């Protein structure tokens, strides 16, 4: 089957940067197992095999059965599988047919021209029709579903098969020299209906043939699986197909004899119809004449059945491996537009069991499809969800999509007895090597549930074991409030939070252990901070969550003893909860690893798998795609915000200057994650309250960062809807000030 696999694979090749999640639905080797009866009774199910991906044939019919697009998609897939099986079976059987039935026909190309569309149409109609019927009929009527689907599929394909068969039969009798001549002369002498000569007899033979053959095949396949209690091999499937073909061939031989006599008579009108033809043959030649050629026919159709069904199932398997059902489900949900102001998710709320998830609307949008703007809504610039990267991932839907098998990483640990994916660690090192924002050579890497878990793991690892002299944890104002909140909530006797770093600059007690948090770029003001304290008693934790080209120029690789990064600010996937720390000292690495093992037994294996998939996309093209997209987006947002605030005499923003970026190899424009807004008026002592009262803008007050409440942090990394609403409200606020700003 290698040539079959190569041929089908070439048909399904999709560009890496395709926006479509997948072109093919998830097909299985075993269509009958879709029936509930077989799923309930089989101890062994293909979909549970650790050697194969999960499988369902034409899953799109069930994943989104109320969407016409997905039904047509299923038809398209069936046409690929049926066309491949028909062409290969005809090509192989053609030579055998000439040996078995010498001289009966010639011209393989002509045969293939008819077989390809006919087989494609048949399977394309049969499979989705069968699945619909299996779902609506009782379990014990599965054979009826297959018979009915076979009749419907045969009727559809007959529109192509009958003219092809008429031309072939006439050419075999020597009436015409070529197929084009045959078509032209038949139409000229007998009219268009001449191409459908014997149509009734064709239906009489082929509709029962199609229905019986596929029903026998599927019932035998199901029974074989029940007995074997395992998945069937390719050879076994071919044998089942051969028996199904042989039995059907024997049963329908009389119909074939009648059909052939009617088709070749042309305008002679020797027979007046199907019944007359059968009666005349039996009367003049004997009833045995109705079984003329049964031996060669059974042999030929048996061989053809083995090839056809073997190729059909192999093609299904190839299609299944290219696009599993979960991608179809994801594609169905991703297709819900939500008016561009919201998203539907696979795990979203479903109000009706048989309907799709509801839209989750962006801030200030509502309604079933998020099309309704809520004019009195507040502009929420408080949070730090990095949704500005969502459009990038929508553009890279295919390359970033992920399907996780039901048995994926069920163990607590990886095969090397660790909690960390070795492959993911390799990719993390590659990313830093390309971006040149951190030294990783001869360093250790630990994983955490986002950078948040790693912050306290680092504090724990750097603290002394002697509880009589706990480490003092400090940070420079303004600083990320989690440093204090997390240190306090754990209430360890080995460390405690002591506030602002500047209070310890003149400390001369070398016996006091100090742990300094250095955030670069800083949250909230985007400054590239450096350590303030130095000495043998000082340990430093470098929080580099925002040290990516999205948010800052990269002047040089960071080279701290403990450096912490997070996926959320690299790719935007805050919900995946994945971060990592790069550590110089092995003892610190071991202490952090022990902390993380006892705390959560490592990071979710699913999160690590998704992170690996995302980093592969990041690394494509040297990271240019995501970093250029992220940087340009943030730079434009900063420029727009800065332009508005520059016109105000009531508010000001932090001062940031362009710097040379070693990644972009040029002077990089300012692109911080947050605006650190200051209220300049003496009376505006609580800037967050001023913004909310005057413009209905929600920011994060400065006191949360240990700064004055004259400051407020405004998030620039949320969705485009969020940013545009924030900008609109700030424009109105600044425009309402009295008099122009003195420049």
UniProtKB/TrEMBL annotation:
- Which parts pass through the membrane? none
Where does the record place its Solcar repeats? 141-223, 232-318
InterPro entries assigned: Alliinase_C, Alliinase_N_sf, EGF_alliinase, MCP_dom_sf, MCP_transmembrane, PyrdxlP-dep_Trfase, PyrdxlP-dep_Trfase_major, PyrdxlP-dep_Trfase_small
Q: Which residues form the Alliinase C-terminal domain?
A: 379-734
One of the Pfam families matching this protein, by short name: EGF_alliinase
Q: Which Gene Ontology cellular component annotation is one that this UniProt entry carries? A: chloroplast membrane
Domain Alliinase EGF-like intervals:
328-377
Q: Which PROSITE patterns is this protein grouped with?
A: SOLCAR (PS50920)
Topology in the membrane? Multi-pass membrane protein
The protein's location, in the record's own words, is: Membrane; Plastid, Chloroplast membrane
Care to name a GO molecular-function term for this sequence? transaminase activity
List cofactor names only: pyridoxal 5'-phosphate
Instruction: State the family named in the UniProt similarity comment for this chain.
Output: Belongs to the alliinase family.
**What PANTHER family would the database entry show?**
S-ADENOSYLMETHIONINE MITOCHONDRIAL CARRIER PROTEIN (PTHR45667)
Name of the protein: EGF-like domain-containing protein
